[in-house]
């Protein structure tokens, strides 16, 4: 006999957040720079994209909701624990059969202080979500309503878009997608971002000046690592 599960479980790290100074170092930083500073890691799958296509940038701590497919009780439970600037992560285990949230949920999340909503499911109420004004990243649209019966977990580790996410991890999201910076790596990644920015700026200048083939690629093409068939 299986014991009846609790409807909601709250994780022990539900209050963990990076500092304001740590978050500030990622404000306005393109997601591509963050991924480069993580040596190519951290990006969620491309199917998780901005709902409106608007050129919005968000950087803030994750608060995770671990929902069963077709359910959003954990997402609703997060509303009590949201702190100003949080990115609410509504994990739906990739379920595409109904929406993971709509305009009322995003409206309440915004009222509670959320800076954004990210899910690996679709959303509904497109026009209403736009009117709420909370930036959202999701897999698309589906008019179906989710249940709110659980069970679910708040503040525990989830996997969204192929990336593990824990409450307190730093989420950076823009038009290109969503990146997860693990809590323990925030300082190290922030320290590498200026070098990444400097290299990007230098390469941009070279392209504007007419660069058509980078020197390292020319060396490969002209050296013994290339074979002409």
From TrEMBL:
Substrate binds at residues 102-105. The keyword Metal-binding applies. Signal peptide: none annotated. Its cofactor is Mg(2+); a divalent metal cation. Coiled coil: none annotated. InterPro entries: RraA/RraA-like, RraA/RraA-like_sf. This is Putative 4-hydroxy-4-methyl-2-oxoglutarate aldolase. It comes from Litoreibacter janthinus.
């Amino acid at each position: 006999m299986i014991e009846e599960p609790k409807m909601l479980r709250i994780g022990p790290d539900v209050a963990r957040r990076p500092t304001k100074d740590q978050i500030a170092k990622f404000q306005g930083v393109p997601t591509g720079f963050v991924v480069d500073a993580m040596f190519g890691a951290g990006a969620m799958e491309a199917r998780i994209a901005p709902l409106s296509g608007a050129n919005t940038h968000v950087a803030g701590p994750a608060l995770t909701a671990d929902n069963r497919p077709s359910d959003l009780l954990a997402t609703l439970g997060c509303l009590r624990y949201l702190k100003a600037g949080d990115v609410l992560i509504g994990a739906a285990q990739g379920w595409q059969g109904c929406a993971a949230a709509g305009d009322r949920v995003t409206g309440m999340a915004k009222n509670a202080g959320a800076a954004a909503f990210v899910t690996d499911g679709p959303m509904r109420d497109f026009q209403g979500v736009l009117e709420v004004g909370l930036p959202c990243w999701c897999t698309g649209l589906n008019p179906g309503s989710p249940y709110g019966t659980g069970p679910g977990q708040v503040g525990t580790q989830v996997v969204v878009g192929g990336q593990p996410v824990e409450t307190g991890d730093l989420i950076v999201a823009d038009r290109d997608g969503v990146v997860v910076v693990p809590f323990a790596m925030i300082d190290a990644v922030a320290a590498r971002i200026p070098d990444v920015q400097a290299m990007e700026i230098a390469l941009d200048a070279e392209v504007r000046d007419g660069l058509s083939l980078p020197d390292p690629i020319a060396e490969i093409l002209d050296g013994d690592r290339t074979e002409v068939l």
